[in-house]
Design brief:
The complex is a heterodimer of chains A (about 300) and B (about 450).
Chain A lengths: L13 H28 L10 H54 L2 H4 L3 H22 L2 E2 L2 E2 L25 E5 L2 E4 L4 H5 L12 H11 L2 H58 L3 H23 L6 H4 L2
Antiparallel strand pairs in A: 1-2, 3-4
Chain B lengths: L1 H27 L9 E7 L12 E8 L3 H28 L10 H17 L4 H62 L5 H18 L2 E4 L5 E5 L2 E5 L2 E2 L2 E4 L6 E4 L5 E2 L5 H36 L15 E2 L2 H4 L1 E2 L1 H5 L20 H7 L8 H41 L3 H35 L1
Antiparallel strand pairs in B: 1-2, 3-4, 4-5, 5-6, 7-8, 8-9, 10-11
Classes of the chains: A mainly alpha (about 300), B alpha+beta (about 450).
Chain lengths: ~300, ~450
Amino acid sequence: MTDVMGSGAISYTPAIIADQLISGLNTDQSQQATLEEQLSTGVTINQASDNPAGAAQLLQLNGSLARAQQYASNATDGTGWLSLGNSTMNQILSSLQSVQQTVLSVSGASLSNEPGALQSLAAQVTAAQQELTNLANTTYGGQAIFAGTGNVSQAYDSSGNYVGGGSAPTRTVAPGVQVPVAVTGQQIFGSGSTGVLGTGGILAQIVQDLQTGTTASLNNLQTNDAQALTTAITQVTTVAAQMGSDYQRMQTFAQQASSAQQTLQSEVSGIDSTNVAQVSTQLTEAQQAYQASLWATSQLSQESLVQFLS
Amino acid sequence: MGDLALGIAASGLDAQQTAMDTISENLTNANTPGYVAESAQLSTNPGGDLLGVGDGVRVDGVTQNSDGLLATNALQTQGVLSQSTALQQILQGAQSAFPVSGSSGIASDLSSFWQSWDAISQDPSNPAPRTQVVDLAQNLVSDFQQASQQLSNLQVNAQSQVSTSVTQVNSILKQVATLNGEIGATEGGGSPANSLIDQQNQLMGELATSIGAVAVPQADGTVNVDVGGVTLVQGTWSDTVVTTGGAGAMKLVAHASGTTIPTSAGSVAGQLAAINQYLPAYQSQLDTAANDLASTVNTQLAAGYTATGASGAGYPLFEGTGAAGISVNPAITGNVQLIAASSTAAVPDATNDAGNAQAMAELYNSPTGPDQQYQSLIQGLGTQVAAVNSQVQAQTSVANAAQENLQSIEGVNTNDEMVQMLTFQQAYQASAKLVSTVDTMMQALIQAS
């Protein structure tokens, strides 16, 4: 056997050519498989090894994205509470204002001799008291919104006593930010003799003074009771304003959370999404290379000196 | 004249015949693994007449076109490649236990788990969101257990692959020693042992691929087998290889000498690296992530109160340690009101307060929590798989090149053989022609006399 190794060139035996073709085919095929996986899954990081740093970043971004979605969900839930809370506060206010009208309409001189009229006014106030208790027990998704964290189903019992808990529930709407989604019944209505509801409360005294119907009791109605009612209405107005501002904060945070979601989503896409145009082009190139390799393999050693010797 | 010419022609016929036999042998073994192409070594026959015509041609022998340096290089590169390939297979298996997609796997289930705590805060007295927390905790537990199980399976499989390889290696070592004996006897008797050497080559190829063995050729035609400086075959003596130790400490030991065999090439080396180094490291990182999950959640729970105002310290959500041992506290599974979601012990507020659950939800991605531990596991694993992938790619081309270099010397080139065949055929025909010419000349002489 003579060889040409002295000149540094390789003598290509059929076995070498076959090995090279096979290795070429394998490379082309695995490249195609990678590109096809990227196209079919739509993502470029299918295993951690595709882009290790990107994979870790992706996991973190997905975690933050899930958190932002939860913030948005919390804010939406809170908006629902506060929206119902605000409309309820408006009804409470108008109900109290009608009681105030009633109180102001009583003129001691003209009504002290008309017990029937006073009784009917007392009945109006009692009805208002009942209505306010019902409003105070307004529920959102089965939860009494003015009951604080203490009681699920009701804030006030049938005699108007507060049975809720000490503080209003909150929702987490941004890292470290918790916004109250309601107020407690006590914040709205107060408690004891300066409270609106309950035995011994302002409305109960108004009813009692109307029912008593004496000049002294009607005087008390027009001075002390009217004063206490005005104070209570001011308090309700203040709380309503606070809930209104909470509602606006909640909406702002809801928007923030949803824009944070979009930002995070686009970051995730930036790391992980397949550039379809680019990958399709690469795939076409890989397929052409593969076809060329296949053609070359089909030509493997078809010709050798053997064919020309007879 | 006549005798001499006929004698020379006859030696030519013999020599060309032997050369043709060699070509025939080469062509039929063109695809035989371990076969080294042969060539007939022709030289002029000494002697002849006084004028110095010579005494024809003779065949000195049929030698193999071997190249020791290229052969060693090819074996070594092949050994390094099979080490990386074996490691690659195991690491890719490990990687598949840790998906990075946004919708499945430990990372995604951790996200859902943390967020489910905020669902409690939206309706604290409702058992449904609490049950969901427990379900998601159960999900995480089975994620961790599955991943851990997958790593254990890889460990067990790798160990059994090593055992299988070692059994094969021991049988090959014995065969090499036996062949050494036969080669020594054949070559000692003066005849070449080409076909025995071909078998030897093939066995050495298998040894290089499995444990990175190197053949050390000896003057008498035999080879010693050396792995990492430990001699396993010397002449007709052969040692056996045994494995000792388990995960983290598995190694190969030469049975007779008791010496530890350092493995730096061959599939067994890759498998041992996975058994001793990579798989235990992943397992321990996974265990850390599981422990971080348990401690983060249980610590936060201990700061809160159950629906009845009892301290959460007595009601951890996770029990057990390690990815395989972690489980959900059956007491909580049985009564979800025992989840310490409240931040106040006061009753009845504790039933309807979710301050502690809200604090729990904010612990997602905590620096001491399971998320970051898991992320660093993924990044480390991904980096190692990517590294071994590119090693395999590079080493494949190196091994292919070494194999091609060796093949170009030791392999059979059909075209070359064909050209040689024509040359020897023509020489044979010429010698035959000479015989008939001498015959014609003799006839002429006889008729003339």
